[in-house]
Amino acid sequence: MDLGLLGKVAVVGGASRGIGAATARVLAGEGCRLVLAARGAAALEAFATELRGGGAEVETVACDLFAPAGAQRLIDAAQARFGRLDILVNNAGGSSGGRFQENDRTAFEVGFSRNFWPAVSCSHAALPLLQQAGGVIIHVSSIWGREAGGVAAYNVAKAALISLTKAMGRDLAPLGVRCVGVAPGSVLHPGGSWERRRQADPEGIDAWMRAEIPAGRFGTAEEVGRVIAFLASPAASWVNATTVVVDGGQSRAF
Predict the structure, then answer these.
(1) Which residues are known to be catalytic?
(2) Residues of the chain with pLDDT under 70
């Protein structure tokens, strides 16, 4: 399916592996020009080299999006290389903390610094370019921002990101910019947390998977990436200020 993304410029955070990398592959396949960010320069450049081998135009920015300066550097790189920005995928983040009684305020601040503030900083930095292009912002949250599961510091930051998606979608629509969220369920990919857990306890994790996920398997990063690409495209032009669940029926919330 041609999503109408040929020549569009997309910035993807957390792009060296997992959902970020899968999203970049899908967008590259649709003809997008890419600006990819991650903290690890070597892994990021290796992935970019793979995409360039398939004909994609790719700029890489090794930076820490947990700091506002990193967000501005990323958007500046997109403007310098391509002169425009159509799609911003806020995918930087990571699990943090444990049970509430084990976490102090610092643990919750870490959760927000990883899973909420990068989206705010990147969106602010990108807004002028996105407004010029009539672009779209995609926030990658989690089903654990919608219901119980996971750990407290991570959950509350992802819940805040889902709320932010609603607020931004409504606030930015008059400027011609959409904001949409994606809430993945449990996704298995190389180097991810579910892979580590499965290696540590394969029988236990497989039993949990069969009990909790109706399809009897984990989701893949590519399945999430395809939904992100659709939501970023003109085909989803009337999808705004909402978060789309991509979990194979795992979550129990309506």
Answers:
(1) 154
(2) none
Find, among 177, 146, 180, the residue nearest to 165 by Cα.
180
Amino acid 18 reads G
Could you please state the CATH topology (level 3) that the domain comprising 9-188+221-244 is classified under: Rossmann fold (3.40.50)
Q: Which residues contact 169 (CB under 8 A, 6 or more apart)?
A: 178, 179, 180, 240, 241, 242
Q: Which amino acid is at 147?
A: E
Q: Where are the domains of the chain?
A: 9-188+221-244
Given this model, what pLDDT does residue 115 score? 96
Beta bridge partners of 61: 37
Of 243, 144, 137, which Cα lies nearest the Cα of 187?
144
| Each residue's pLDDT tens digit, 139-167 | 999 999 999 887 899 999 999 999 999 99
Q: H helices then E strands: how many in the chain?
A: 9, 7
Q: Which two tokens stand for residue 191?
A: 């180097």
Q: What is the mean pLDDT of the chain?
A: 95
DSSP 40-76: -HHHHHHHHHHHHHTT--EEEEE--TTSHHHHHHHHH
CB count, 10 Å around CB of 202? 10
- CA pair distance 177, 86, nearest whole angstrom: 9
